Amino acid sequence: MKTKLLEILLNGQYTSGQEISAKLGISRTAVWKHINSLKEDGYSIESQFGKGYRLLHMNKYVTPEKVRLGLKCKLFARDIIHFHETGSTNEEAKRIAEKNYPEGTLVIAEKQNFGKGRMGRYWQSLSTGLWFSIILKPSIPPRDAPQLSLLAAAALQITLHKEFHIEAKVKWPNDLLVDNKKVCGILTEMKGEMDRINYVIIGIGINVNQEVSDFSGELANTAVSLKIIKGREIDRLLLLQKYLETLEEFYLDFLENGFERARRVCVENSHTIGNIVTIYFGDKEHTGKAVDLGRDGALILKINNQEISFYGGEVSLKGK
Ligand code: ATP
Ligand code: BTN
């Protein structure tokens, strides 16, 4: 209802309570309540006796009604849970998935206080980035779930290319880099049994409008934002909507035709393939030339003339 109300107010004119109530088929008291709720969400709405309501300013948040406005998705973001602040959207998404929320539910936060990277690492999540998680329930074998991290990276690669002319590289298995610096990290978590997935949470963190000074210490050399790359502020809402649409397209294609489309994007824009790399997995390490991405998403290393597939771990580049 708030989305529809916002749609009406976007005309920038005064609209009377009566007209809104007729358009939306709700009482004038209900209109008044929804207007107040929009105000609480940070929208600035003027109300004048005899004239009605007029939208003065949108808020800067990625609120559900704004995300839904004009969004061309069939499956994703039908349910949206928005937090001004939370620990981690992946943790929230897990709680919500346990309550049987449908596939495609989007959990988004303006700011995370305990953003999680892989292996429980810290993920810096200032309010200028995009931090969100999507609940998926694919009927695929659990061993194929890591393909979804690469799929999410591939969809963002394409979105950044099409919308912002940014050429990002996919660093296997879960990052997107521009000029060797991380612009996006992906954390995929799963609940399932041996042969069946209950749900997968894809957590995506995109550095959007952070300044150079926001990245200090270790991050000063390893992290970058879209604003730093483009030299201008990026519309977080537009980016999120375009990304959700592309991600859904990739996901639906994945369900129907498998991993090949996402795989191709990852190979064509790989940061890893063609380099000598070391993969650290538990207390073991393996060094070899990264030669390909398997049909199943594995990174294939050539070690002593033998091709070996790796399904997880940390990759460190040693050069060509
Ligand atoms: P790998 O190459 O194996 O992915 P990694 O060092 O990139 O290893 P990840 O677990 O993928 O590790 O990512 C977590 C790391 O990302 C953290 O240790 C931190 O250095 C870095 N990091 C934290 N917040 C951000 C951010 N907002 N943008 C970019 N990098 C970040
Ligand atoms: C990594 O590179 O290690 C993955 C980082 C993933 C960060 C995102 S931000 C949204 C979601 N919520 C989290 O706590 N983590 C992921």
Describe this structure in words.
This protein has 320 residues and is α+β, with helices and mostly antiparallel strands. It has three domains: 2-57, Orthogonal Bundle (Arc Repressor Mutant, subunit A); 64-268, BirA Bifunctional Protein, domain 2, CATH 3.30.930; 276-319, SH3 type barrels. It is 32% helix and 27% strand. The protein is built from ten helices and 14 strands. It has helices at 2-9, 17-24, 28-40, 64-68, 89-98, 147-164, 219-222, 226-230, 236-257, 260-268, and strands at residues 44-48, 52-57, 80-83, 106-109, 130-136, 169-171, 175-178, 181-192, 197-206, 276-281, 284-293, 299-303, 306-310, 314-319. The strands form three sheets. It has a seven-stranded mixed sheet with strand order 3-4-5-9-8-7-6, sandwiched between helices. α5 links the parallel β3 (80-83) and β4 (106-109). α2 crosses α3, α6 packs across α9 and α6 (147-164) crosses α10 (260-268). The longest helix is centred in the last third of the chain and has 22 residues, at 236-257. The protein starts with a helix and ends with a strand. 38% of the residues are buried. The mean pLDDT is 95.
CATH topology of the largest domain: BirA Bifunctional Protein, domain 2
Total E-strand runs: 14
Which CATH architecture of the largest domain is right?
2-Layer Sandwich
Instruction: Note the quaternary state here.
Output: single chain
Q: What is the 3D shape?
A: elongated
Compounds present? adenosine-5'-triphosphate, biotin
Structural class designation? alpha+beta
Largest sheet: 7 strands, mixed
Strand order of the largest sheet: 3-4-5-9-8-7-6
Taking the alpha carbons of the first and last residues, their distance comes to 56 Å
Count of spatially separate domains: 3
Average pLDDT metric: 95
Strand content: 25-35%
Helix run count: 10
